[in-house]
Amino acid sequence: MENNISDKIKISKETIATLPVESFPGRIVVIDTEESAESAIAHLRREKIIGFDTETRPTFKKGKSNQVALVQLSTHDTCYLFRINRMGFAPALKNLLEDEHLLKVGISLKDDFCMLNRLNDGQFTPGNFVELQKFVKNFGIEDQSLQKIYAIVLGKKISKGQRLSNWEADHLSESQQRYAATDAWSCIKIYEALQKGKFISPLNQTLLRHPSSSL
Questions:
Q1: Which among 32, 11, 5 has a CA at the least distance from the CA of 145?
Q2: Residues 95-118: pLDDT tens digits?
Q3: What is the CATH number of domain 13-209?
Q4: pLDDT over 50 (residue 45)
């Protein structure tokens, strides 16, 4: 960690390993039908901000890729896991992701959008998304992975142990569900901590201010 906003803020894997583990503490709802998707979307539309992420079954063959299996949308206390491989890219979900009035926060969005676009014949236009990889640069944070950004901003470690698991499995394990929910939820946590205009790194208690903040 650096002590000056003019320097780039980084964190090592060794430091992350010493941090307490954090995971999503709320309710997780698995969605695998269009009917249940519509009910979940109605709840999400009442929120001011939601966290976004996707999961895709990994492939270990060169040149081969799989389609998005899961879309995670999280509020502060509830995360919905939309099983796209089971129900397709439901119209209600697509409309929500295109909604310009609802703020959505995610990371590495370009790849996610590309994958979702394939599911909709190039007719998907995401609306009102914040890309955390760009947003954190305003605060001197150079690291770009979700785990490292979370550690820098909130001083805790989020596990990546389920990243390469089978997201098309008949049943998502509790560990998979918690992992997927944590990724989406943590995007809200990071954004709101930084959006206040300043943050104190829990790792060294250095006060870091947003360049445009008057605080």
A1: 11
A2: 999 999 999 999 999 999 999 999
A3: 3.30.420.10
A4: yes
